[in-house]
Amino acid sequence: MPTEPPAPEPVSPGFGRRRFFLVGAVAAAGLGTGLGLLSEGRGRPADRHGAAAPGTPAARARYLQIVAHEDDDLLFMTPDLSESLRAGSPHLTVYLSAGESKAGIPPDTHDVNAYTADRETGVRTAYALMLGVRNRWRRETLTVGTLRLLSYALVDRPDVRLVFLLVPDGRDPRASLGWHTLGRLWSATGHADVCGWTQAPEGSPYRRCLSREDVLTALGGLIQSFRPTVVRSQDVAPDERYSADHPDHIAAAHFAAEAVRRHAARHPEQPLLQVNYRDYNIRNLAVNLGEADNRDKRRVFAAYSAHDYRISSENPHWDAYEARMVYRWPRGTGFTAADAVYAVGAGRLLVWRRTGGHWSAPRSLGDPGGPLAPAVAAAGPVVLGLRTDTGEVVAYDQGGWRSLGRPDPKNIHNQAGAPVAVVDGSGTVAVFVRNGRGGVSARFLGPGGWTRAWTDLPGVDMRQVVSPQPKKRHRRYGDVQDGLAAVVTDDGLVELFAATRSQVLWWRQRRPGRAPVFAGVLPVAGAIAPLAAEAVGGRVQVMFREPWTARTLAISRPMRSRAWEGTVPVRAAAHLDGEAPVIGVLPPSRLIGVPAPLPDGTQVCALGADGRLHVAPRSAARKAAWRAIGR
């Protein structure tokens, strides 16, 4: 049924007379006071979510989202986004692209500037709905160096702000740089003269020719002023096995990573935790959100799409995105070691150490010459990570960093997943990684050092997936997903589990110090990766979430038997969407990843969104048992 178009937004006549200067001082949570007032909608929803009280974990956590388009955070970062907003934490979201696409290009008759403004209105409406507050925003101009940026602050939650850089959409051939402006700017390293005109009307204070350094300067200034603890961004290395991603998404992810890296180099004392989200290719994966999350996400996206004429209810992909949220690199539970906890902040390895029962502040161990993916695995004397720029698996020990090389041939891009590692009964460190061909590769550290090359484990159908991307030189792949799980039995033998979209594969060692062999497929109907596994009480148990229902299930067997028993629901499991399920009580603050025990079993450790380490006794049954390390 056709509806009347929304009434024009009333703007205060004082708009544009003053500007808020951002760089040179650290702004308050709201990044300044408002200038013009936009009023949208009537009434006030009953469900209101106020800002967190100062000093609380929610107030300490500060979230920065850097995305390409005005719906990317709603489609690919939600429900994480809606939950952290409702927790009361300050939020700043930066949209790099104006998102105009092909509006106004015949036969389309829509005004391009009006469509850009409509998308901004849509995302403002969605944010207000997520928070349950009035849809009233203050429009401001933020100045970063010589740049003027369009910004809106939510009146009832001034610590929630949206910023628009208005770089032309990658699918707009009218842009001054032609197609893919954001990608062209990212690739223009060392070419300061290359710039693209913003998608803004003539005479607008936001119309200018932006260079690569301009974009990075804007992001750097916003990071410096807002001081986030968590930076959410998109996928720098989309999985080539499945649907292709939008070039704007990839370029936005690269800009975000570089801006964070530069800021961390100038301010190494600030914690900056990164979370990367997969984009278009999540539609090729299993549904991993529960019914309530899916329903809420649909409701929020409907509030946005009411202002975006290009969102068609007949396009099945929107429903697919609303039912899923997938991390590019799940963190897993392998980040603890003897008296140490490891994490990645701004691409560098961080460590907290325990001495005499007391935990130190985090210390940076640097990077291996390039940025690290957010997930690491500690085993024995080494910590393993993945370089996002080269796809190399890297190892850190007392001697520093060394590269273990890529598990893939040259015609595979940087596609490997984050490594998992365990120490078997012979003292050999076994490292496993989902390789870019969709299989599993392994490498081992024994008394004689590292094995010379990566070994591909048998048992994976390497022709199961035919890539829909015709330009890729490698077309057929295995279907193993990120989020492997490895355990060591009482006999010192390693068992490894990997989920495909339809099965759970199983490998086990016959003798310590040897590569595991394929042991078969678990009798489950399907499992959402990542998996969790443990060997305790004479049994091996694998936990996973069930596709479509998102229920947590477990399957187990006696260690000395090869016969698996039936799956059972795990009622005591706690989970975070996109991560492996765990047993136990989560801390009251929001987490980045799930908790993991120390090897001696005395404490459980978790990384908080406030940038602090949170610890509790292993037997903790109450949220109050958790304490945060540091101020």
Automatic annotation (TrEMBL):
The keyword Manganese does not apply. Pfam families: PIG-L. Coiled coil: none annotated. Keywords: Membrane, Transmembrane, Transmembrane helix, Zinc. InterPro entries: GlcNAc_PI_deacetylase-related, LmbE-like_dom_sf, TAT_signal. The chain crosses the membrane at residues 20-38. PANTHER family: 1D-MYO-INOSITOL 2-ACETAMIDO-2-DEOXY-ALPHA-D-GLUCOPYRANOSIDE DEACETYLASE (PTHR12993:SF26), N-ACETYLGLUCOSAMINYL-PHOSPHATIDYLINOSITOL DE-N-ACETYLASE-RELATED (PTHR12993). This is PIG-L family deacetylase.
